[in-house]
Amino acid sequence: MTMLTFTAVAHVDDVPPGTTKAVAVDGESILLCHSNGRLFAVANRCSHADEPLACGRVRAGWIACPVHGARFDLETGRAMNPPAKAPIRVYELRIVDDRIEIAR
User: Fold this and answer.
1) Confidence check: pLDDT of 63 > 70
2) pTM greater than 0.90 (yes/no)
3) 5, 50, 53, 84: which could join 79 in a potential S-S bond, CB 3.0 to 4.6 Å?
4) DSSP secondary structure code for residue 92 in this structure
5) For residues 9 and 76, what is the distance between their CA atoms, to the nearest angstrom?
6) How far is CA 34 from CA 2, 23, 41, 61, 72, in A?
């Protein structure tokens, strides 16, 4: 059984409702998203266009790629509509005190 290692990446106040924040962990860009009263952590790359999702629209538990409009479910990473077919990576997230930590 592999133990997850959590890394503190931001404070809860850094990601107000309806916003995103890109953070780097071990050279990888991860996007924190605050939607529907929850925080999520996903890869900051569209699986279709290989473009950053950081400027994408966040609504009702999904994020849209700013280039082609492909939407991804923030909880599962599932591609919700064309042109994307492949999911994006999601990361386990926890909050300790007021810090957001991501599992690696």
Assistant:
1) yes
2) yes
3) 84
4) -
5) 21
6) 28, 14, 9, 9, 14
